[in-house]
Design brief:
alpha/beta; 15 helices; 14 strands; 445 residues; 8-stranded parallel beta barrel; two-stranded antiparallel sheet
């Protein structure tokens, strides 16, 4: 079965820069709860597996050395805290999972562990965490540092961070610690609660976790780094990995590598995709041209400069782009070099901006789009797709009203939700991480 996550962000302009200016787009309502509760209801009606919420700390100020373009074009700014949106959406749904992006580099594990346990309780076990270490120097400056840590050093920090939060989530409260015995006045058995202990280079913890065991204990673990160091981290920790779309052969090699690194642990891989679906191919093509009139090249350059760590304002249109190591998303640089060659230019980059991003849309009627997605799954081994928004909410209506019935008719998409937590729905297993996962070593049996 093909799995779908909606890929969104608590902002006005997410991936497809400029489309918020379309007269039918509702993204200006991003700071109203009704915007998010309506989205959650729509996704659950469409049997989406989850809502994947991206996030960054910091502003896109690499392009031109300032944030002017990002601010003018609402390029992922202003931006709300995604964790604050989840309880409201959980209250109007029963099955939809929520994968939220949280940067571990600037928050102590003790506080973060409580926040995720709280969300796991309030959603009845439907929370996931997209583990990121950040890639913006502007975020580091906002947190009192001159610049962010080096790329691989951030992953070293992340490995230690994971051990710290596993100790809190998995090892502080025994499964039978909570008694809730009114007659005896005993809520928790003190002999079954112990301090989590972690002594590392970056973190030292000796404290009881503040939350009793939540339905999943550890949230479903997402990760999106595709560099060699990122894949090593994913092979150790991630249950779900988000990869960029691209040439099927390249994606297939990445998927095979990720699964080999994970060993016996199951890993689901989601590829990024943008869909434009019409009742006919001609209608879909007309929608594409309509949307393109609102796409922002400048906004896309500001976004790409930040994510690639390259100030494209410094380059002439046909000047070769230098692509040495950067402190940004290394796998994005590698993917761009594979796609455009070692001598790629700003003109080539701009030519790839079909809808204000580097992600080319899949365009057609429901049958054509279903063919494309099914073929990509067959060729690459991915499990599903993170679907970026274009014009909201009609892009979701295109998926739920046109595409999903077509996929269901082929037996490629579920017709109902499975019971249980987010992890149980995704993996048809128990609510806890499997024994092969390193978190299991922290459990108190």
């Amino acid at each position: 079965m093909i799995a779908f996550n909606a890929f969104d962000m608590a902002c006005i302009g997410h991936i497809q820069q400029g489309l918020w200016t379309h007269p039918r787009d509702s993204s200006l309502g991003y700071n109203r709860l009704a915007h998010w509760t309506n989205l959650a209801r729509t996704l659950e009606k469409g049997l989406f597996d989850g809502l994947f919420l991206a996030d960054v700390l910091g502003i896109y100020d690499v392009y031109g050395g300032n944030a002017e373009v990002a601010l003018k074009g609402a390029v992922q700014v202003p931006l709300l805290d995604p964790a604050m949106l989840v309880p409201a959406m959980a209250a109007v749904t029963q099955h939809l999972g929520f994968g939220i992006t949280c940067n571990l580099a600037y928050e102590p594990p003790y506080l973060f562990a409580r926040r995720m346990s709280t969300l796991d309780h309030l959603t009845n076990g439907r929370i996931g965490w997209n583990i990121v270490t950040g890639y913006l120097d502007s975020a580091a400056r906002g947190m009192g540092f001159d610049r962010q840590m080096a790329h691989d050093d951030r992953y070293d920090l992340a490995d230690e961070y994971m051990d710290a939060v596993y100790a809190l989530w998995e090892g502080s409260w025994a499964d039978d610690a909570v008694k809730a015995d009114r007659a005896a006045g005993l809520y928790a058995d003190p002999s079954r609660v112990r301090p989590a202990r972690h002594q590392g280079r970056q973190y030292k913890i000796e404290a009881m976790h503040l939350c009793e065991p939540s339905p999943q204990r550890t949230p479903v673990l997402y990760q999106a780094g595709a560099s060699d160091r990122g894949r090593a981290f994913a092979g150790r920790h991630a249950e779900c990995v988000f990869v960029n779309g691209g040439q099927p052969a390249n994606v297939a090699r990445l998927v095979a590598d990720l699964r080999a690194r994970a060993g016996t642990r199951p890993v689901k891989v989601f590829a990024g995709a943008t869909l434009i679906i019409g009742r006919t191919e001609a209608e879909a093509r007309d929608l594409l041209e309509d949307y393109r009139r609102h796409a922002s090249v400048e906004g896309a350059l500001a976004h790409a400069s930040a994510s690639l760590g390259i100030d494209f304002a410094r380059y002439e249109m046909d000047e070769p782009i230098a692509t040495g190591p950067t402190g940004a998303i290394q796998s994005n640089v590698e993917a761009m070099t594979r796609a455009a060659g070692t001598g790629w230019t700003k003109r080539k980059l701009i030519d790839s901006f079909i809808l204000g991003s580097r992600q080319p849309p899949i365009v057609g009627d429901a049958r054509q789009v279903a063919d494309a997605l099914a073929g990509f799954v067959e060729a690459t081994g991915v499990d599903g797709f993170n679907l970026s928004r274009t014009v909201m909410p009609e892009c979701l209506s295109q998926v739920t009203e046109l595409l999903i019935p077509e996929l269901q008719s082929r037996g490629l998409y579920k017709t109902s939700y499975a019971p249980g937590t987010y992890r149980e729905k995704l993996f048809a297993a128990g609510p806890r991480l499997p024994e092969a996962h390193p978190a299991a070593a922290h459990r108190w049996w």
